[in-house]
Amino acid sequence: MGRTISFSEAIREAMEVAMSKNPDVILMGEDVAGGGGVDHLQDDEAWGGVLGVTKGLVKKFGRKRVLDTPISEAGYIGAAVSAASTGLRPVAELMFNDFMGVCFDQLLNQGAKFRYMFGGKVKTPVTIRTMHGAGFRAAAQHSQSLYPMFTSVPGLKVVVPSTPADAKGLLLTAIEDDDPVIFFEDKTLYNLKGEVPEGEYRIPLGQADMKRTGSDITIVGIGKQVHTALKVADHLSKQGVEAEVVDPRSLSPLDNQTILQSVEKTSRLIIVDESNPRCSIARDIAALVADQGFDYLDAPIKCITAPHTPVPFSPTLEDLYLPSTEKILSAAEEMIGETLTTV
Amino acid sequence: MGRTISFSEAIREAMEVAMSKNPDVILMGEDVAGGGGVDHLQDDEAWGGVLGVTKGLVKKFGRKRVLDTPISEAGYIGAAVSAASTGLRPVAELMFNDFMGVCFDQLLNQGAKFRYMFGGKVKTPVTIRTMHGAGFRAAAQHSQSLYPMFTSVPGLKVVVPSTPADAKGLLLTAIEDDDPVIFFEDKTLYNLKGEVPEGEYRIPLGQADMKRTGSDITIVGIGKQVHTALKVADHLSKQGVEAEVVDPRSLSPLDNQTILQSVEKTSRLIIVDESNPRCSIARDIAALVADQGFDYLDAPIKCITAPHTPVPFSPTLEDLYLPSTEKILSAAEEMIGETLTTV
Amino acid sequence: MKSVEEKQNSIQQEQGLWMFRKMVQIRKFEDAVREIFARGDIPGFVHLYAGEEAVAVGVCAHLTDQDFITSTHRGHGHCIAKECDLKGMMAEIYGRATGLCKGKGGSMHIADFEKGMLGANGIVGGGIPLACGSALTAKVKETDQVTACFFGDGANNEGTFHEGLNLAAIWNLPVVFVAENNGYGEATPFHYASSCTHIADRAQAYNIPGVVVDGRDAVAVYHAAKEAVERAKRGEGPTLIECKTFRNYGHFEGDTQTYKTKEERESQAEKDVIQRFIQYLTDEGIASKKDLDRIENEVEREVEEAIRFAEESPFPSENELTTDVYVSYPTDGGGA
Amino acid sequence: MKSVEEKQNSIQQEQGLWMFRKMVQIRKFEDAVREIFARGDIPGFVHLYAGEEAVAVGVCAHLTDQDFITSTHRGHGHCIAKECDLKGMMAEIYGRATGLCKGKGGSMHIADFEKGMLGANGIVGGGIPLACGSALTAKVKETDQVTACFFGDGANNEGTFHEGLNLAAIWNLPVVFVAENNGYGEATPFHYASSCTHIADRAQAYNIPGVVVDGRDAVAVYHAAKEAVERAKRGEGPTLIECKTFRNYGHFEGDTQTYKTKEERESQAEKDVIQRFIQYLTDEGIASKKDLDRIENEVEREVEEAIRFAEESPFPSENELTTDVYVSYPTDGGGA
Ligand SMILES: Cc1ncc(C[n+]2csc(CCOP(=O)(O)OP(=O)(O)O)c2C)c(N)n1
Ligand SMILES: Cc1ncc(C[n+]2csc(CCOP(=O)(O)OP(=O)(O)O)c2C)c(N)n1
Ligand SMILES: [Mg+2]
Ligand SMILES: [Mg+2]
């Protein structure tokens, strides 16, 4: 196995591997190199993205392949999409997923639909990396988790990794995938460390990971909430309840089978996700199981999500906004029909 | 009760009533008057929207209150939002909901979040009217039903009417509502006729309508699919199965109670909607019932939606794309455990 | 700068005949679509390019299959000028399996990547960022491919116009932006919706050349495009060409055009672009009336064949509904 | 046109002292935020306006509470110039219940509609269409309210810039567009990201006046804004004013600004806008050094009080999480 590196280093590594292997892979985005057009700036002093995730790549690959863009998301996301359908394999960064609103058309109506509208005669191997997630005190316009909207769009693939190793393996796969992939990075996970294999390391899309096995209850977690789920599972275990924690890793394609098999075993399902509740991935998975796994179920399916509110700025409110171990535990408790000591 | 008028006339009437009552109500959008700046054009010859829904309003209210806009959706939708928060009550038309991608930020991050971000100190009474729906042979970029994305956004209200009377009553309420409302109009329903009350007629948001009562199975239909559901119900009735058809009418707020009460009575639930399946309103409602109505259920919850594909152009494919009575019947059949003759 | 005469002289016979053929193809194709649509055999709605032929043809005359174009909702003319197959186009408009997009795209989404035609576009202004993308590919791969980006006067008020032109300018991309100013976006006149006097004036905002040409003069378009394409190939970046043109029919079929005066419709129709090009070709001795008649007859037959081909073609099979969403289509289509 | 001298003379004493006070308030407020942020007491991230005071103040000097402004992620200066309460602002930045937005908005979303401050904005270019909206309200209601729309040099490449300026131009809306060109959008220089030489050059694309002023000269900004505001009030439509300015600190706190040379940082800091305005006020005999010192001391105390107020304020109560999403909040919040 690999060394211990951070989530953000793992992401950088995936890009580095992909770029080393294939000259068609280019990076573009606001300050992904950093300081475009500044003469005196040493490449190793360049920003490398607003939180430094791409730092070092411009030094290695040069400004011809690591392109700073103007603040023109519709312009450069559209350019990335079309560069992909004409022969490049761009990795474009949309700094915060919250900014989708200024460029969504280029994904929704252009990149996502090219293949279908054009009768299967084109492929669009573009990857959009973007930050999501609350907990950073970044307020209402920089903290959302908007993958449900992308998941709803046929033609897009959607990835939400929870660990450094998954992030690396999934990003390399995403870049090499021939379809448009939206790759979500929780900014509060960037410093999370974990063992990550060196060199080429890939994880297929559409393959959930069992982050913990158990027989009493299934908890599906998305992104950072996988960790909340694991905490809850530890706690439950102390009380003799073994939770199975399933991390779908990609939301589109979604690994229905692994989820259904887990529920077949445990008969109980909680989904934990920090998007807003309505038309969310949590409800999407709940509906899947309420249809195809109905007969396995012994209890109502619980979705633990953010409330139907924007993300509040104040730390005290933002902490309440996120799914908590308490809420998950009390849902589990209700399902199991026993009183569990709270964490 | 009223006269028989069409869906599109009912919509126009709601605007007419609202504008007559309140000088702050203005209309804006591409060709909502029609022929902005054309000297020789008689106001009654002006387009009145691309499918003529606002025809006649410019004649009655003048070009100061019925504003043709440039093809600049981010510009004028944003202007409508901010005009609302500074004292007007605009009804802005986003011609096709598919165009949301070029202006979504002004709703997602601006209008929808003002009230929350600004600590409750502002209201934004804007209504966005927009066309949706397949079946018009309008292809992949003019046929989508994107209300799930809007429903997921806290701060927005979302309305999808299915009949002329509902359209009028809901639109008048929407315009007079102090929050931003996205009002979806199925372009294939515009010619549908129905009885509509004259003058001021309002239907509250968040109140589902029982379009048919029954005791054996609940079918929730969205927009045009209410009619498909009713057709199926007629057919089931002939075979002794009485379906209850619930039309939520507004997706946000959603009338949870009516849906849950219906399922309590019937123990079976099918949701019919023509959006793509993932993170859809169909799955959203399914998840609601799989949680809060789990104990009522005797069978898996079925979502009959469009497939996970863009809308195809070819008529033969587009007809297959839409939910069909056959598909709904076979789902019902499975649930009821009896063989029903297909329509 | 060469004089106008010198420039005109530079259209070679082969080129001139090609242009004529393409213009006639567009006109006859569109007139046929209009008729077929009127009798209800074509589904959906169609936006016809008739009247604007000189623009697409004058520009595409300088492009090869390796070069790219992006297009609009009014895309048939661009497709034909970029040498898409008439049969495949007509079948697409009919929604048949033999269409260029297997019938899945329709009139507003015809594409043919093998011809460098990157797609008609149902989103006004949607193609402008895409043009930057194909140009970026050419730049990164160091080929000399040029991208011509067609869009309407209505599109020039979309944010993508601004973002695309600025991006092309700072990256010095090989794009020729072609504004087709037919005076209207739907029913709304250019002068109402746009605060600029000419679209080409907006080029200044990006420090790139902006040129206004008479878009009903194929020769003028040809020369302006030549310069812009050569400039792009020399690595000198984008140009914005505004072609003042005229839409022979309504915004879409069914539009009665009350917003145009009778005089406007008639006075413009007089200046028909094809008649004008015929005049030029014969005046200059590039072609005889006989040559041109022969071509017209050939095209007539081509269009008839295209219609027959479309009408005899099958609709797509049921399974086509769910194919072509992804290259690799794992599980059951994203959990659906 | 008046000569520069004549113009300068027109700043009245009351106005001059108000401007000085506001500039000092901004500077001291921002320097305090910087310190508090560094020691970790302010959550999230903050973008400071220090160095750019002359712009917000020179513009807002012409506005009343009835007039509107839209702002940016770097909004503290605009808030202060529009007379938002320092205590309420500081409490907001601390995330306290007594903040102008009850702590729900934070640094990037401070608003005070009673003062006509329509909100800072976390979306670059997001405020530009909004400015057209408040101006439309004024126009439809036939008031003489003006909207000043602040945005950065980075924002001038967003599509909303183009759409907003065009819309304001064709509708002749009472907006003053104020481009704060501090030379950088994050780490990227203006000249790399923007194809125009000056942002003001882009005004030509909308047939509206475009003016470049030294944004570090409060007097120059004051006069340019005066003309633009009067023009707007006369119903003559929008103006674009580009203020060349300088950001004293990094893009956000924590940015080490490797993209600026040491010389750049130092040479610019020398031209400090407040020192320069002091010079002007004293040279012109508008204020004595003593008056100004007194104001500085008063502001010092105001900022200290604001900090104390914020620190002593409670955090919002739990129930605040789910209030203020809708005016009417039927059922349980949209089915959630
Ligand atoms: C983003 C977007 N907004 C609006 C429309 C509806 N629409 C289709 S064509 C058109 C007019 C376009 O005008 P112009 O760009 O001048 O092209 P023309 O039709 O004159 O060729 C409009 C408004 C659209 N398809 N996409
Ligand atoms: C739509 C959008 N894109 C990107 C960002 C990230 N971002 C925040 S501030 C900023 C730079 C803005 O530069 P400029 O407009 O010059 O304002 P300045 O920071 O210099 O005051 C960027 C890129 C954003 N907030 N919104
Ligand atoms: Mg036009
Ligand atoms: Mg800047």
From TrEMBL, chains A, B:
InterPro entries: THDP-binding, Transketo_C/PFOR_II, Transketolase-like_Pyr-bd, Transketolase_C
Domain Transketolase-like pyrimidine-binding: 5-192
A GO molecular-function descriptor: oxidoreductase activity
Keywords (A to Z) from UniProt: Oxidoreductase, Pyruvate
Matches recorded under SUPFAM superfamilies: Thiamin diphosphate-binding fold (THDP-binding), TK C-terminal domain-like
CDD domains in alphabetical order: TPP_PYR_E1-PDHc-beta_like
One Pfam family hit: Transketolase_C
Official protein name in the record: Pyruvate dehydrogenase E1 component beta subunit
UniProtKB/TrEMBL annotation, chains C, D:
InterPro entries from the UniProt entry: DH_E1, PDH_E1_Alpha_Subunit, THDP-binding
Domain Dehydrogenase E1 component, first and last residues per copy: 21-316
Cofactor(s), by name: thiamine diphosphate
Keywords assigned by UniProt, alphabetized: Oxidoreductase, Pyruvate, Thiamine pyrophosphate
GO molecular function: pyruvate dehydrogenase (acetyl-transferring) activity
CDD domains recorded: TPP_E1_PDC_ADC_BCADC
Protein's name in the database: Pyruvate dehydrogenase E1 component alpha subunit
Secretion signal, residue range per the UniProt entry: none
Residue ranges of the region described as Disordered: 312-336
UniProt keyword annotation of Transcription present: no
Superkingdom of the source species: Bacteria
One annotated GO biological process: pyruvate decarboxylation to acetyl-CoA
Keyword Oxidoreductase assigned: yes
Taxonomic source organism: Melghirimyces algeriensis
